[in-house]
From TrEMBL:
Signal peptide: none annotated. It comes from Shinella curvata. Belongs to the metallo-beta-lactamase superfamily. Class-B beta-lactamase family. Residues 32-220 form the Metallo-beta-lactamase domain. This is MBL fold metallo-hydrolase. The lineage of its organism: Bacteria, Pseudomonadati, Pseudomonadota, Alphaproteobacteria, Hyphomicrobiales. It comes from the Bacteria. Gene3D superfamilies: Ribonuclease Z/Hydroxyacylglutathione hydrolase-like.
Amino acid sequence: MQRIRPEDWYSVRRLGDDVTYICEPYIQEFYRCNIWHVRGRDRDMLVDSGMGVVSLTQWVPLVTERDLIAVASHTHFDHIGCHHEFECRAVHSAEADLLAYPTRENTLADPYVTDEIFDALPPEPYCSKCYAVKRAPATRILEDGDVIDLGDRYFEVIHTPGHSPGGIALYEKASEILFSGDIVYDGPLIEDTYHSDGKDYIASMERLMSLPVRLVHGGHFPSFSGERYRQLIKGWLDEKQK
């Protein structure tokens, strides 16, 4: 399989609301984490950091321009691979141990990380069988209701267990933007990981349903409107009640 140069590994696209979308386009869409960079007045925020197979700080200058907090929506391999590159790292308390002591098993790298998840491979010496997330102990532990303050922007931490015990969404009330992580996105949701919980998933979805949302930036697949957000959650909940 073709190897990609490190300088070509990431794709960067600026959106509205001072949000920038960063992704790894050579990872197949189902496995490809959305990395979100949010510009604030006093500091920036990064929501998730991809697989970590190519340095984010070396090849995406945007993430090193200013003081930045790297937030983990949860601790699966595709979301925390570059967290070790950042000085300020935040995660929900329920998954702090996973960020500090990641293994192939507890980050789901085993069995998901194989050459088959790529359309083209990262540069050498990358090896799927050798892949592992690096330790990145949190410098800030998050709980439900906490606020991430960027100076002129304020993101409320919403604990959304179900996909994983420490999953979170980040909500900006002023703009009605939601960074939803993997609890809800416009694609097939994963409800059967080793630490997923069906009852928690339903409770999280019911809570999110009542949130006034204009725009959603999910953990995977394209962003979508508040109308689509409500449609997705209602459809999911209706299926559970059958």
